[in-house]
């Protein structure tokens, strides 16, 4: 299959391919042993890891887990240290982090982290998918980013009212529904991309009709038609331009994160 599915319905081979797609190898990463007294409100990013961001530190990052959910978290600078702060307490609560659990943070670029959580028994943990109602709307999941100069590096900040956006993210827990697709020759050359049926609940489409979606990747945007037929949705007109402009090839993985539900704005991250 070409999209992420519930691992409980799959055999070992499917689980392995799913994890390979979700957690690419050889990404810069760091780990933390979760200590509730220290890290429940904010989490310090190791100073040695900061160079992996380059000279522009993203103000907003997405923390993705194996439950296929993402949390919007703000990076704040306190003295010379950087912390995951606004949005982090929700991540802690909704993943039921407990004292002594082990977390790894792999940075995939484009302001996106993959997070693996290990319980104190040494086994992988996945609780968020069972605790969160995925049909909720998250319209203010992420703002646009711009940079401002600093001494040794700069921190990217969203345009507009940061405080208002932070409150909106805090209210929703920073979660954004998403789906992931492995590119095939058909998706690349036929001008259509099928959207998984489990994602229909977020699209507000009629049985037959069209809506305009915006795909954002890095600092560019593309307008793409979402065509609906017999309760089936797909990216249609405009999809070929997105494919060509981003040089998508067979086997590339596209992760579509719905950051504005009402206007159908997707943040797209690519793994090649």
TrEMBL record:
Residues 28-121, 178-272 form the TF-B3 domain. The keyword Transcription regulation applies. Its main location: nucleus. It is found in: Nucleus. CDD domains: B3_DNA. This is B3 domain-containing Os03g0621600. GO terms for cellular component: nucleus. Transmembrane segments: none annotated. One of its GO terms (molecular function) is DNA binding. InterPro entries: B3_DNA-bd, DNA-bd_pseudobarrel_sf, Plant_B3_domain.
């Amino acid at each position: 299959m070409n999209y992420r599915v519930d691992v409980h319905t799959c055999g070992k081979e499917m689980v392995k391919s799913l994890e390979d797609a979700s957690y690419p190898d050889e990404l810069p990463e760091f780990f933390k042993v979760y200590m509730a007294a220290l890290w429940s409100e904010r989490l310090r990013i190791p100073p040695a890891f900061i160079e992996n961001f380059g000279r522009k530190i993203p103000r907003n990052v997405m923390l993705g887990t194996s439950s296929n959910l993402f949390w919007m978290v703000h990076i704040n600078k306190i003295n010379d240290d950087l912390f995951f702060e606004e949005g982090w307490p929700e991540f802690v609560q909704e993943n039921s982090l407990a004292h002594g659990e082990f977390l790894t943070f792999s940075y995939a670029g484009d302001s996106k982290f993959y997070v693996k959580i290990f319980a104190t028994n040494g086994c992988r943990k996945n609780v968020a998918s069972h605790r969160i109602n995925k049909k909720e709307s998250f319209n203010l999941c992420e703002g646009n980013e711009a940079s401002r100069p600093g001494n040794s590096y700069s921190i990217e900040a969203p345009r507009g009212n940061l405080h208002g956006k932070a409150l909106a993210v805090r209210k929703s827990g920073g979660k954004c529904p998403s789906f992931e697709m492995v590119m095939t020759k058909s998706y690349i050359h036929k001008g259509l991309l099928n959207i998984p049926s489990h994602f229909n609940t977020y699209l507000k489409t009629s049985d037959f009709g069209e809506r305009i979606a915006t795909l954002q990747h890095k600092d560019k945007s593309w307008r793409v038609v979402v065509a609906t037929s017999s309760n089936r949705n797909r990216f249609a007109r405009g999809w070929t331009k997105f494919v060509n402009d981003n040089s998508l090839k067979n086997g590339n993985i596209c992760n579509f994160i719905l950051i504005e539900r009402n206007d159908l704005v997707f943040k797209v991250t690519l793994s090649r």
